Records
---
Amino acid sequence: MIKLDPPGRSTRPPQVKPLWDQGWYRFAARLPSPNFGPRPAGSLIDLIVLHSISLPPGQYGGPEVAQLFTNQLDWNAHPYFKQIEGMTVSSHFFIRRNGDLQQFVSTHERAWHAGTSQYRGRGNCNDDSIGIELEGLEGDRFEAAQYESLQALSAALMCAFPIRHIAGHEHIAPGRKSDPGAGFDWHALQQGLGLNHQYFPLSPGR
């Protein structure tokens, strides 16, 4: 005997949506940036690069970072913006102080976050890395909600790509960049992800 579902009700299990859709993460607000390009053929995406950013520096919660990554920032809105006027940059992800997650570039594409860089014996880290910006200042501490979002995102990335390294901008461009800085808790990230130390840079701040 075939049992039919009552009208308006269903006993069938709901469909589970995939975490990724052509490189876009299901749990991130999608804000497409024009600042990206193709990855070189055969790129091995095995590196996550962590950054910190706030616009204007030290001010949180506004739309300015998203505006920068989408080429919509008003260069006249704050004196600091004149120092970066005309800059065309992006990151794959941005994690706000409250843990909210935004995505600007598909992980299948090359975001413009690393600049001149070298790590694990390879240069041009934009080619084969995922860039994640944390809302914050270099050297300052980050919020628990940010670590929670970062851990969940990193775990999802590790399911989608052969990630073997997680480093800061300071590690791939030493002397030129110093973010996320000493305020970032590398040990907390390592413990939260359950990874051994080989995934992380050998750094006094870790």
Note: The longest helix spans residues 144-160.
---
Amino acid sequence: MLTKRIIPCLDIKNGRTVKGVNFVDLRDAGDPVELAKIYSDEGADELVFLDISATEERRKTLVNLVREVAATINIPFTVGGGISSVADVEVLLQNGADKVSINSSAIKNPQLINDLASKFGSQCVVVAIDAKQIDGQWIVHLMGGKVPTELNLFDWAVEVADRGAGEILFTSMDNDGTKNGFANEALSKLSTLVNIPIIASGGAGNMQHFVDSFNSGQADAALAASVFHFKEIEIKSLKQELRNNNIAVRL
């Protein structure tokens, strides 16, 4: 049986970890290098690092920070933000990333998914999808959730899987930062539509929410930020609770 994964997420802006609600009202959550080491030591299965305001001018800062974080952890490390080419990915992998996460660039240029999967292998390519419900439909957004597209979440998920993505990181913008639980109905539908792992993101507030994401949502991994950053949930305790609920995890 494949174990379920717990993944802390470092949202980075100007070199600091930040966290907001529904993608806005960001507040400082600490030094990313320090947090990364803590999570690695506490038993996180992977770490995700997203430069949420990446621009070409900030690329060097991003790479330096990626290198620093990679040097302090011993778990798989996914990096996203401002990635738009094969060359961008090569630089990040050379500096310690194990996987990359693409979002807006994949929407603007879907062929990028194919190119990255062909060059580096599907296991290296995570496609992040930010979506919110509009008139009963899950609509994909880009540019850090600021710009709605005409893409439907489920249609886009099937396409990215067909193009060679190794995983999908689905964030419900409606649930993000609310601590009311993950979007389990959408997660469950995603897991039945594609045969690649689905990472649940957006809405974790307590341990039961993680249990529900794996049971009701059928997610393969659950990602969270503020509940870990602000010490509301400890990873070791969470994993023990998951095991108590007959969910296979690595302790």
Note: Confidence is low (pLDDT under 50) at residues 55-60.
---
Amino acid sequence: MILPFREPDQVEASIPAVAAHLAAGRLLGYPTETVYGLGSSVSLPALESLARLKGRELGKPFLLLVSGRPMAESWGLTFSASARALSDAFWPGPLTLVLPGGEGRLPDALRGREGGIAVRHTSHRGIERLVRDSGQPLTSTSANRPGGPPAPGPDKLMEYFRDEVDSGLLLVLDGGVLGNVPPSTLVDCTAAVPRMVREGAIPRAELRRAAGRLAP
């Protein structure tokens, strides 16, 4: 199934169906401020289903989309001084922070090798509202088959995953075709000194202009 997801009234109308779909452990294809993503709820069965869809081992974690720092903290994630400064400056937006915490609240399958969980407050208004209204983080990974480019729009996403859409496993939100936007910048904030993992949509120099010595 494909649901229109471009105008505010379309976003509002889709939220109950999307919430029920995710609560049943099924998967979502959706636009973000960077690329189209694939996601699920944070339950372990849903994460396993998402890993199978992507064709990869569950040990490679997915990031979480949240509606802001309060949601991340409510799930037990911890913000260092650097993480607070960076999130104040660049959230919502294409900045992903790897944060410690969440033990007992979030599955360990979401953790990377450094022990943290990657989190972003998306600036896509529709997805931000979906996450906020549901009160639940949404997992996120690029909408592509292994080794292939991410889907720029719903038509290509359908081409990649037609069987899963036809079976009802995957629900697609049609947010139009996205531009050629770099992936989010990724900063590891699990230690006292932040570490740049991936320089993406936000350059290192911009991080440092905004957060000074608290930036990587």
Note: The longest helix spans residues 8-23.
---
Amino acid sequence: MSATDSTADGAGQEPTRRDFLYVTTGAVAAVGVGAVAWPLIHQMNPDASTKALASVEVDIGAIEPGQSIRVMWRGKPVFIRNRTDEEVEAAKAVPLDDLPDPQTDEERATPDNGNLLIMVGVCTHLGCIPLGEAGEYNGWFCPCHGSHYDTSGRIRKGPAPANLEIPEYTFLTDTTVRIG
């Protein structure tokens, strides 16, 4: 039998040195791709400081009616406002048909204390930080692009597509809340 008479699929032949080199080269290439890809994938993980701030506890006992505080959570400002009764009534009186992103005030305020409002202080348009007690609705106003939010943090006018976000929170005591 001559060298040209071998079978077409190579079945029954012993592995050659060339076969070993192909397998070895493929394995080294796979390890090389993994070694290059690992740092690229790992750098997409959240920063360690963000993980450390997964939740924050805030003492809200000293916030007087009409007063706001700002705390940082996950690198973003969170507005906590103890609204006056007038601000709550103004928010409840708004017809849902007038809102671009309809939500009732009850859906946005804390269940046990309707005067307390906790929301992420980042404009939903381009991520700016709105000013408190400003704008046409005496809520929050984003001076960068002109978005106006009411006393419940709902978008009323401007380019922002949605209301200010309400984060997850839990009351630990009557005067302490955990955000996140």
Note: The longest strand covers residues 67-73.
